[in-house]
Amino acid sequence: MPRILLVEDEEHLAAGIRFNLELDGYEVEVIGDGLRALERLVPAAEGGAPGPAFDLVLLDVMLPGLDGFEVVKRMRAAGNYTAVLMLTAKGLPEDVVEGLEAGADDYLPKPFDLAVLLARVRGLIRRREWARGGAGGET
Fold first, then answer.
1. 79 and 41 Cβ atoms separated by less than 8 Å
2. What is the C-alpha to C-alpha distance for residues 83 and 99, in angstroms, rounded to an integer?
């Protein structure tokens, strides 16, 4: 079962996204601030579990502690290349460019259509499976 980290500080939105992702067959962990997300995504090198803990990160930009742009920059700098879909109210072209240049794999402005979110999630998970040499094309 693919694992997704949802980093979203709006509890009602996080609950709705989590519910729908779980219905679609994903295991979802929710974190509400950027610093805690970074700690989860870039654990201390010594004693850390091998390989990435998640198949996908859904990352808001406007978070307490550390914004999503900085979270993805630090993930990449630390060598964590887990797929990242930025899911945020910051939808101006310059925001999208900043997110993608920071290291995000995709960027979806809020408000979004649930079917589009789920299709993008499936696409990013499918690509990860392909990269790992698995079938993954059945979604």
1. no
2. 13
